[in-house]
Amino acid sequence: MSKFATPASLFCAVALALSASASAQEMVPPTDPVPDPALQAELNADPGFDELDKDMDGFISKEDLPPEHSLALEFAAADSNRDSRLDRVEFDAYVDEPEEEEAEE
User: Where would one find the signal peptide in this protein (predicted)?
Assistant: First the structure.
């Protein structure tokens, strides 16, 4: 036997063992998780009073609102006492107010 036969045999045995174990494991493509409807609704929900009260003074000013928030466009209508800020009661009244489409139905 030549001096290269043993290392070559060992190399082939290891390569064969590794390829056998690799082929034994079935590759399963990753699947997208099923979205949780409650979590999805929470993610799509408008931010609440505490999230909008950026300076945490207990009021929402127009400066606290992101420009794309619907309340930024209707701030004057939601500010029932006309003090240029919304307290929690005014905010809750705005949030609980039915939209025009819902009111027509």
Answer: 1-24
**Is the pLDDT reported for residue 64 higher than 60?**
yes
Token pair belonging to 20: 């056998």
Question: How long, in residues, is the chain?
Answer: 105
- Please enumerate, as own/partner, the contacts of 27-31 that have beta carbons within 8 Å and a separation of 24 or more: none
pLDDT in tens, 23-62: 556 667 666 666 666 655 555 566 889 999 988 999 999 9
* Dist. CA 101–CA 9, nearest whole Å: 79
The tokens of 44 are what?
A: 């799509």
Q: How far apart are CA 96 and CA 46, in angstroms?
A: 12
Q: Report the 10 Å Cβ neighbour count for 91.
A: 19
Higher pLDDT, 34 or 88: 88
Determine contact, residues 85/75, Cβ cutoff 8 Å: no
Q: What residue ranges define each of the domains in the chain, with the CATH number in brackets?
A: 47-98 (1.10.238.10)
